[in-house]
Amino acid sequence: MKGLSLNIISAIFSACLMMPLAHAGDDTTEMKATTSEERSGPISLNKASVEELSEMKGVGDAKAKAIVDYREEKGGFKNLEELTQVKGIGPSILESNRPLLSLE
User: Fold this and answer.
1) Phi, psi of 44 (to 5 degrees)
2) Of 8, 1, 19, 82, the residue nearest 46 (C-alpha)
3) Phi and psi (nearest 5°) for 43?
4) What domains are there in the chain, each with its CATH number?
5) How far apart are CA 102 and CA 104, in angstroms?
6) How far apart are CA 80 and CA 77, in angstroms?
7) Along the 104 residues of the chain, how does pLDDT read in single tens digits?
8) Which residues of 32-65 are buried (b: 16+ CB within 10 A; e: fewer)?
């Protein structure tokens, strides 16, 4: 009887461990990771929407809005390095996103 109880407990424990794996692909709220390979083209600093800009690494909605505000105030970006003039955008964010960015 003791061996049977141990087997049942082991089976239940194993089943519990496997549950998350059974539903791993079912999450409809799963966030989509965007990479340069998945995008149809680069992100234009001078044309992209807040939503598009927020796809950049290290840039959420607030920083994306700051980019759009800066663009409207200054009449557009003249070069990629100018992005670091936006509050909250430093050299590391620029460098991690440089391959994704364009001015067109």
Assistant:
1) -85, 120
2) 82
3) -90, 120
4) 43-102 (1.10.150.320)
5) 6
6) 7
7) 566 565 666 666 566 555 554 444 444 333 344 444 455 679 999 999 999 999 999 999 999 999 999 999 999 999 999 999 999 999 999 999 999 999 99
8) eeeeeeeeeeebbbeebebeebbbbeebeeebbe
- Number of other residues whose CB lies within 10 A of the CB of residue 83: 22
Instruction: Say if residue 91 is exposed, middle or buried (CB neighbours under 10 Å; 0-12, 13-18, 19+).
Output: exposed
How far apart (Å, rounded) are the C-alpha atoms in residues 54 and 41? 15
CA–CA separation, 76 and 102 (whole Å)? 12
What's the angle, vertex CA 70, arms to CA 69 and CA 71, rounded to 5? 90
pLDDT of residue 17: 55
Q: What is the Cβ-side half-sphere exposure of residue 46, based on CA atoms within 13 angstroms?
A: 11
DSSP-assigned letter for residue 55:
T
